[in-house]
Amino acid sequence: MVNVLKLIRDLRQRILLVVGRGVVQRIDDSGGVQQVQATFLSDEVHDKMEHMQAFGFVSHPPKGAEAVALFRGGRRETGVVICVAHRQYRLSALAEGAVAIHDQAGNKIVLNNDGTVDVDAATINLNGAVNISGDVIVDGKVSAANVEDNIGTLAAFRTAYNSHVHTANGTSPPVPTA
Q: What is the CATH number of the domain that holds 35?
């Protein structure tokens, strides 16, 4: 009977140790799988734990983030981090159904449940072709290296305009100042 009680106690302890919650100390993001060093319980440090991230989404959590790890069979020597979050940087007050991507600097993309997308960042870099269907509203300066439509380029229009002469009185149009 004593052996059965001991087995039950051991099994209970292993079940309790299957899931762990810890604090990220360091991230190694140099390889094919991100590795996390985290502290669990009071002084239980685990190094080189694989951090499983959803396909297409990747992040480099800051030190102090909270991690949830699974330990196979409750054996704490091998664990896999399945989730990392940081309370200090978490976006809050999103509308129900909204989705956001953000970083610790406050840059964010919010997919709102009304069909709009909000992007907040100091600079947005787009590489490659950009296709827009619909109106473009700009509240600020627009700079472009080349502007063209299906008739020609703005540079060609300027050349034609600046070189033409009024035949009625023999004068040229004024030269643009800026």
A: 2.40.50
- Tell me the DSSP string of 110-164: EE-TTS-EEEE-S-----S-----S----SS----S--B-SS-BHHHHHHHHHH-
**What is the number of residues in the chain?**
178
The gap from C-alpha 132 to its chain's centroid, in whole angstroms, comes to 22
SS3 12: helix
The span from the first CA to the last CA of the chain, in angstroms, equals 95
CB 27 within 8 A of CB 81: no
Its pTM stands at 0.72
Using CA atoms, how far apart are residues 66 and 62, in angstroms rounded to an integer? 10
Could you read off the pLDDT of 72-120 as tens digits, one per residue? 999 988 899 999 999 999 999 999 999 999 999 999 999 999 999 999 9
Look at residues 120, 20, 138 and name the one whose alpha carbon lies nearest to residue 75: 20
Residue-range definition of the domain harbouring residue 103: 91-120
